[in-house]
Amino acid sequence: MELLTNLYLLLSFAMCRGQRSSCDRCDPRLACDCSHAGYTLVPTVTDRALTLDLSFNDIAVVTGGDLTGHEKLRILILHRNRLSEIHPSAFDSLWSLEQLDLSDNQLTAINRRWFSKLGALQELNLLHNPYSCLGSRPVLQRLRRLKRLMFGGPALEELRRRDLSGVSQLEELTVQANNLRRYESGALADVWPLGRVTLSLHGPFLTNIALASDVIGDVSYPETPIILKDLHLNQSVQPFREMARRRVRRITFCNLSVSDKGIVDFLEAVDGEPITSLFMDGVTLIGEGRWEKARLTDHKNIDEFFLRNVVVLNVFQFSSLLQLGFLLQYPRKVSIINSQVFVMPCATTHLLLNLQYLDLSDNLLTDLTLTETLCNGDGTLKDLRVLNVSGNALKSLSTVSRLVTNLSKLTHLDVSRNGFISMPGGCSWPSTLRYLNISWAKLTTISPCLPETLEVLDLSNNDLKAFFLILPSLRELHLSGNKILSLPPGWMFPNLQTLTIQSNTLNMFTRSDLQAYRRLQDLWAGQNKFVCSCDFVYFLQSAIKGGEDVHLSDGEDAYVCDSPLYLRGEPAGRVRLSVVVCRRVLFVSVSCVVALIIGILVCVLLWRLHAFWYLRMMWAWLKAKRSSRRRQRREELLSYDAFVSYSERDASWVENVLVPELEEPRENDGDSLNPRPLTLCLHKRDFLPGHWIVDNIMSAMERSRRTVFILSENFVQSEWCRYELDFSHFQLFDGETGSNAAILILLEPLSKDDIPKRFCKLRKLMSSTTYLEWPREEERSGEFWRKVRNALRDEEEEEEEG
Predict the structure, then answer these.
(1) H/E run at residue 729
(2) Farthest CA pair distance, the chain
(3) For residue 548, what is the DSSP state?
(4) DSSP 330-378
(5) Which residues have CB under 8 Å from 7's CB, separation 6+?
(6) How many CB atoms lie within 10 A of CB 597?
(7) How many CA atoms lie within 13 A of 441 on its CB side?
(8) C-alpha dihedral (662, 664, 665, 666), degrees to nearest 10
(9) How far is CA 775 from the centre of its chain?
(10) Tens digit of pLDDT for each residue in 655-673?
(11) Average pLDDT across the chain, whole number
């Protein structure tokens, strides 16, 4: 049969291997949550995973290779799948596995080979599977480190002596055996020491009391708490006599149906035994409350009664608890939780002679019925130290304070989840009160009603907008879930060590706010709507890194920005703000200074490069270019035949040679007409005094038909000559000034390559314009001057023809 199973699994694996999905839902702690994902096969996950949760899927088979390579895996959860087959070697590679959950599946048999390599396993859950026994051979023999074992289900029918062989000690054992039919005495007895034991023995208690007694007897030890689930305590109480014989001290009943007679029988069965704690959770009580038969039993060792979720059928037929005086006089702790208690008569309260702890939470008490329960505050419960009346229908805090003021040993009072709307101006409290819980009420303000002796105060989940009250002894203050805008002043709480103020309307807090708390160690202030200003972000990041005395206990992810809008939703601890945002004044000041310095440098540079001259020159040219009557105005403005551009170092030649030759009348040189003297514009002679030299240059060139450039080494080295050349270049490309506006005269031999590259316009002119060279031979000078005059007159003739 096993061979066929293995073949089936191998075939299934071969067919489905290529169809496995992947799961990438792993957090930074390498815990992979692949639950509720509809997987039918074990998905592939990173081999670095420490936790793998595959619960609530549809996985039916785990093959031999599904978990290969997961040597680091510590927790594997396969709860609530459809597992019916697991390959014998499926878990062989999980050497580090500490927790394995196979509960709520369809495993009909437990194979010991599953656990043969799981030497590190500490917790194994096999609950709610349809196997009838744990196997023909011991299945847990190699699990030497096992601490928590849960097994059983609706089909478990047999437990044999060697089933738990190899398991020597457990912290927790849970056995679900509601349909157990055969139990070999001693099957659970070898496990010792044994911590908490949970047994579900509904069927055996109904049909086989001896079997139930054997099971309970094998796990009953004085220090082992026993939890019995799903019982009808109306049959024989023989199993409890076995427990009493083993001197069990703590017994818990869960989901219990019991009559008053059943309780009496139980009390008689454990008469005189050292039971110290009796817990009942989920109790349905029937009968009329007749306890007379148990009045002579001895239960002076009982220290604690715990009742929760109790339902009394026919409660109006139920007699008073006064007849239980023999039982109520001993316990120091009594809890009756969520049991629809609306009053405990004062006469019953008087029976609780040794009571130190009373929990009546989640019931139906009102101010009036609490007054009856506490005997109108006469101090009946003189030893009471802890009182919990949370989750009732109380409305008056002043009534509560009056009722407890005479409880001279009361240290803890919990009145949370009640209907308090306001707080009176003054209250009377016992001087011993140290802990007060008024959370989940509807308080909007606080008052000096709160006692100064408090060390722990919980006002969470109210409607408080501020907290101003001096409490010198306070060590813990809990204000989460209110509408508080800022931290309470620290000087009011000189001994405060812990402050929780989560989920308020807190915008920010500063280092000085926290320094006001002289002894504050732990702060819980997350889940607020923080304004992530620069100061707040820098301070918070410093606190996260441990740079502050106060520890942010709820972690950096709890501090999330709400504004500015572009940071909304970002953890404040990981926000990076720029200098522009955080040092705006400094940034603007530095920027202005830098801009001013750059502006000054640029202006100096432009001044040195005479850029302003170029701009003015361009502006003048553009204005002239756009004018529709420019040519007419130009004709009217023309005053000179030529503007002579030359270097100051060449002034001697210009003044002594060029000017006399062109401006003075000449004798007839053979031409039919005596040449007319020309009018030249020279900067020394014709520039207007008091005007900017640039304006003079532009005006002179505008008023001249031609521009004559006297080229020489001196010209090339003159910046002003360059400006004159640039403006002439504009005129050259202006269609209305003609293409021969510039005349070049080389005073000395000068090639284009000798001209610096910065005189780009001059180099271009020399490439595109014919130039005249001043002859070295005197006999050729006449021809030179004739060419100059002809060049200057050509434009005049063209204009006259036009």
Answers:
(1) helix 719-732
(2) 167
(3) S
(4) S-SEEEEESS------HHHHHH-TT--EEE--SS---HHHHHHHTGGGS
(5) none
(6) 10
(7) 27
(8) -60
(9) 90
(10) 888 888 888 876 655 444 5
(11) 85
- In whole angstroms, give the CA distance from residue 557 to residue 597: 45
Residues 572, 559 contacting (CB under 8 angstroms): yes
Beta bridge partners of 285: 258, 312
pTM here is 0.72
CA distance 376 to 384: 15
| φ, ψ for residue 742, nearest 5 deg | -110, 135
Residue 314 to residue 255: CA distance in whole angstroms? 19
Per the model's pLDDT, the better-predicted residue between 13 and 667 turns out to be 667
Q: Is 255 left (phi over 0), alpha (psi -120 to 50) or beta?
A: left
Angle at 394 (CA atoms; ends 408, 411), nearest 5 degrees: 25
pLDDT attached to residue 504: 95
pLDDT at 17: 46
C-alpha to C-alpha distances, 647 to 644, 682, 745, nearest whole angstrom: 10, 11, 13
Taking each continuous run of H as one helix and of E as one strand, the counts in the chain are 23, 33
Any idea what DSSP says for residue 754?
G
Nearest to 43 by CA among 186, 33, 468, 31: 33
Q: Which residue has the tokens 């289900």?
A: 153
Is the CB of residue 404 less than 8 Å from the CB of residue 380?
no
**What confidence score (pLDDT) does residue 72 get?**
94
Q: Using one digit for the tens of pLDDT, what is the confidence trace for 397-424?
A: 999 999 999 999 999 999 999 999 999 9
Residue 128: how many CB atoms within 10 A of its CB? 20
The answer for residues whose C-beta is within 8 angstroms of residue 369's C-beta and 6 or more apart is: 342, 343
C-alpha radius of gyration, the chain, whole number:
53
Task: Please give the helix or strand (H or E) that residue 579 lies within, else none.
Answer: helix 579-582
- Are the CB atoms for 216 and 239 separated by under 8 Å? yes
CA distance 769 to 472: 101
Q: How many CB atoms lie within 10 A of CB 276?
A: 15
Work out the pLDDT band at 723, boundaries 50, 70, 90.
Answer: low
DSSP states of 587-605 as a string? Answer: HHHHHHHHHHHHHHHHHHH
Question: Which residues, in sequence order, are CB contacts of 694 under 8 Å at separation 6+?
Answer: 613, 616, 617, 723
Neighbours of 645 (CB within 10 A): 28
pLDDT at 753 over 90: no
With 0-12 CB in 10 A as exposed, 13-18 as middle and 19+ as buried, what is 530? Answer: buried
> Which residues, in sequence order, are bridge partners of residue 457?
436, 477
Give pLDDT, residue 801.
Answer: 43
> Phi then psi for 196, rounded to 5 degrees?
-75, 140
236 three-state secondary structure: coil
Contact 479/456 with Cβ under 8 angstroms? no
DSSP 249-260: -EEEEEEEEEEH
CA 503, 508, 510, 516 dihedral sign is negative
Q: What are phi and psi of 199, to 5 degrees?
A: -125, 135
Cα(427)–Cα(425) distance, integer angstroms: 7
Query: 88-102, 460-474, 602-616: which range is least confident on average?
Result: 602-616
Task: Say if residue 735's pLDDT is above 50.
Answer: no
Confidence band, pLDDT 50/70/90 cuts, at residue 759: low
Is residue 111 within 8 A of residue 139, CB to CB? The reply is yes
Place of tokens 């039918």: 40
Highest mean pLDDT among 51-55, 519-523, 639-643: 51-55
Distances in Å between the Cα of 790 and the Cα atoms of 140, 662, 686 are 126, 11, 24
Q: Compute the distance between CA of residue 86 and CA of residue 82 in angstroms, rounded to an integer.
A: 11
User: How confident is the model over 606-616, as a mean pLDDT?
Assistant: 68
Say if residue 230's pLDDT is above 80.
yes
By CB atoms closer than 10 A (0-12, 13-18, 19+), residue 256 is buried
Sign of the CA dihedral 744, 745, 750, 751? positive
Q: Kindly report, residue by residue over 21-50, the tens digit of the pLDDT.
A: 899 999 989 999 999 999 999 999 999 999
